[in-house]
Design brief:
Elements lengths: L2 E5 L1 H7 L3 E20 L2 E9 L6 E11 L2 E10 L10 E2 L2 E7 L2 E9 L1 H9 L11 H4 L5 E9 L7 E8 L11 E10 L2 E11 L5 E12 L4 E11 L3 E14 L2 E14 L7 E15 L4 E13 L3 H4 L1 E13 L1
Antiparallel strand pairs: 1-2, 2-3, 2-4, 2-19, 4-5, 5-6, 5-7, 7-8, 8-9, 9-10, 10-11, 11-12, 12-13, 13-14, 14-15, 15-16, 16-17, 17-18, 18-19
């Protein structure tokens, strides 16, 4: 539920008019236990906190400019609920202008590649599913972005272009260009994003994500295919396939994922490291705003050595998420 605030004093003093703003967000707290086995050495870590980064506080406002145009803003913050006295991090903060021409948005907001990882990874890109390590390497949230979205030209179809600025003095390092298209109709949803980023003065990173899902009502199937190439040396590919089945207020999801990182070398033999994971998630809606969920994942990885073949990772999580 969004709580409405009337920003009277400051706005009236400047413009003589009254504007409205809304506050919304979410807070999460839970328990996580992770056991890793590396070359025969086993270690377990346990934590209590907001390990999924879902804590958020947003302030939004919008104004009708007339002639079909609208302006909107968002101030976003990411509080850390399990660290006393910690700094509140900035989150998605931007200003937008929309009309018959489409929409222009500038500021810090979710990168298009990450949107696909969040929307088509049934674990929310926070389980042990490993396709998202390819999908998310461009950064979940990026600042210094300017995005243009086309107006609706066909029902269910969307297209946008995002320019990112690295703002490195005397260099284009960090500059990026992202093209994204999507289509939604009925239970079908499909998205594709392509990013080119200057990760250094000599290396260009290329990333692409494809997300597909279909909601049959009795079950939802989802697929995520991701790839990333860093210059001519390293290529990462990953895929996840899953199904989610609702049972009234509850839902059960299972997802299988695989990823491979291949690194070429001019001085040694190339290396290939592969990972696979199986994730389970059970969620229950206590209300429209409060959800409790449990996740369990088991991952294994292998590489060029026999020791790396036995590497494994197991994670158990129990969290409560409340939105407002």
């Amino acid at each position: 539920m969004k709580k409405t605030l009337v920003a009277v004093a400051a706005i009236t003093a400047v413009t003589g008019a009254m504007a409205q703003a809304t506050i919304s967000g979410a807070i999460e707290m839970g328990y996580a236990s992770t056991t890793t086995s590396t070359a025969g050495s086993v270690a377990t870590t346990k934590s209590l906190g907001d390990g999924h980064g879902n804590n958020v506080l947003n302030i939004n406002a919008a104004e009708d400019l007339g002639s079909g145009m609208k302006a909107d803003i968002q101030f976003g913050f990411a509080p850390i609920s399990d660290a006393q006295g910690s700094t509140i991090k900035s989150y998605q903060s931007f200003v937008g202008l929309s009309g018959d021409f489409g929409r222009v948005q500038g500021g810090a907001f979710t990168q298009s590649q990450a949107n696909i990882a969040f929307n088509y990874d049934l674990m929310g890109a926070w389980g042990l599913s490993v396709a998202n390590f390819a999908a998310s390497n461009t950064g979940f949230f990026m600042s210094n972005q300017l995005k243009y979205s086309l107006p609706t030209i066909a029902k269910g179809f969307t297209a946008d272009y995002t320019k990112g600025f690295g703002e490195t003095t005397g260099s284009k390092v960090g500059d990026s260009s992202t093209y994204a298209i999507g289509y939604k109709t009925g239970g079908l949803s499909a998205d594709y994003a392509y990013t080119s980023m200057a990760s250094s003065t000599t290396v260009t990173m290329i990333a692409s994500n494809v997300g597909l899902s279909y909601d049959f009502g009795m079950a939802k199937v989802s697929a995520l295919i991701a790839s990333q190439k860093n210059g001519s040396n390293t290529t990462v590919t990953g895929s996840s396939y899953g199904i989610s089945v609702p049972f009234g207020a509850a839902a059960i999801a299972v997802q299988q994922s695989n990823a491979t990182a291949y690194t070429a070398s001019t001085t040694a033999a190339p290396t290939a490291v592969a990972q696979s994971a199986l994730d389970w998630k059970v969620s229950y809606a206590l209300s429209k705003r409060t959800n409790v969920y449990a996740m369990y994942g088991s991952a294994s990885g292998y590489g060029a050595s026999a020791a790396a073949t036995a590497n494994s990772n197991k994670k158990t999580q129990l969290f409560v998420l409340h939105s407002f």
